[in-house]
Amino acid sequence: QVQLVESGGGLVQPGASLRVSCEASGRTLNNYTMAWFRQAPGKERLFVAAITWNGATIVYADNVKGRFTVSRNNAENTLYLQMSNLKAEDTAVYYCAGAGVRPRNSVVTRSKLGYTYWGQGTQVTVSS
Fold first, then answer.
1. How far apart are CA 127 and CA 111, in angstroms?
2. Rounded-to-integer distance, Cα 27 and Cα 51, Å
3. Taking the alpha carbons of 117, 60, 9, 73 in that order, is the dihedral positive or negative?
4. By C-alpha distance, which of 91, 94, 92 is closest to 126?
5. CA gap 110, 105 in Å, rounded
6. What is the pLDDT of residue 86?
7. Which DSSP state fits 111?
8. Mean pLDDT by groups of 10 residues along the chain of 128 residues
9. Whether the Cβ atoms of residue 5 and residue 120 lie closer than 8 Å to each other
10. Which of 43, 15, 6 minimizes the C-alpha distance to 117?
11. Rounded to whole angstroms, how far apart are CA atoms 70 and 10?
């Protein structure tokens, strides 16, 4: 079984930067696409960014493109999301997700249905 644990969330001011991390344990996800989603209060969980197993393909949601950077360190079984120029509308619980099928897939999906494993989430609040 796989456990995903996010960390690094917190309260920051608009314009600040923050990095959240997701560590995988149990079965390795090094050969699978990993992604970040976020969910604001009362809203559905939405796609933020995804990265293939080798980092060759990276996809972002339009509203974070140019501000967020997703990366992974397979040697440390860790996924990262570096967020800069944060806005109030970025406030949400951030979840990491891992695909558990189709190893070494070069195609990225933005759908929640494409991910088998989920973390418990980390809260990011952007407020002055």
1. 29
2. 18
3. positive
4. 91
5. 14
6. 98
7. S
8. 95 98 92 97 97 96 98 96 98 96 89 96 98
9. yes
10. 6
11. 18
